[in-house]
């Protein structure tokens, strides 16, 4: 029985823990937070992630947790609708959108009886040889594992310790700022309105929205990388966000007051991770740590599928982790690479850079039913 340490208990980590345990591995998961993160934007479980969730037996719970969001309505400063996209038209019947916190919680509950979880802790050092990896933790005693998997997100400690030091917002050129910053914060029940659409208002280079379920505010704005940005500094995040949206109307003043008082604010750069390889020796990376596709690329779906692919590869090559990691990477890159190429299109849709771009986007939504029908047909033909 091989011992595996997974760093990160978000989406990829618990999914991998579940499947590795099913294959007979002894799994430990270490997570910096005191518990799985409970907030975040809604995410999709779609395409190849659906059978993974079905085999884990979690699809009924995911369907009960579904947001029920029907579309995105784009509004002007007075709140009048200027365009709309019906998201139901492009979602296959077996796919589901759920709050990110609910997805993380459901995956954790599916895996917690099959793995050891160490919360409120993190890796501080890794030392590997041909037979294993010596791991030092912030709190727990040092231990040795056969393998270590970094599923610890965009700002991965495992990646830094294995592939190099971070330099500001770029880790030796491996993390690419995509020219945007994103923030989310929960809202009180009812503050987002009673409808089932996401309501979004744009000004050039900026988008602000409210989600009906879970009730929350969403901010997205164009900006070059801030050299002083510290992804741990919540007070800095509030200052950056308030400064970026201080001149925006619609509901921005009210929502920025919520930001000032927020205990739970997520703020980060929209970035991609581009690595020439996802493993070194007995350490490999998974999910956003290996290949963050940015805000627009089905990250949760890819995390679940990548975890399943990695577990299958390790089971098939249990005595040869190098071969297993090579097999996993070759298979999963075929899904990741096209998603990483779609960022420019998605950002132009959500946060046009000019007033003309906003107008063109709103006018284009009039063609949305025809575009959605074509996408649905494509899905049907693909089976």
Secondary structure: number of strands = 18
Helical/strand content category: alpha/beta
Question: Based on CA inertia axes, which overall geometry fits?
Answer: globular
Rg result: 21 Å
Low-confidence stretches: 166-172, 376-383
Q: Could you tell me the mean pLDDT?
A: 89
- Please state how the strands of the largest beta sheet are arranged side by side: 5-4-13-14-15-12-16
Taken as a percent bin, the fraction of beta residues is 25-35%
Helix content: 25-40%
Count helical runs: 13
Main beta sheet: strand number and arrangement? 7 strands, mixed
Distance between the termini: 38 Å
Organism: Microbispora maris
InterPro entries: FAD-bd, FAD/NAD-bd_sf, FAD_aromatic-hydroxylase
Domain FAD-binding: 3-317
Protein name: FAD-dependent monooxygenase
Give a quick precis of the structure.
The protein has 383 residues and is an alpha/beta fold. Helix content is 37%, strand content 25%. Pfam families: FAD_binding_3 (PF01494).
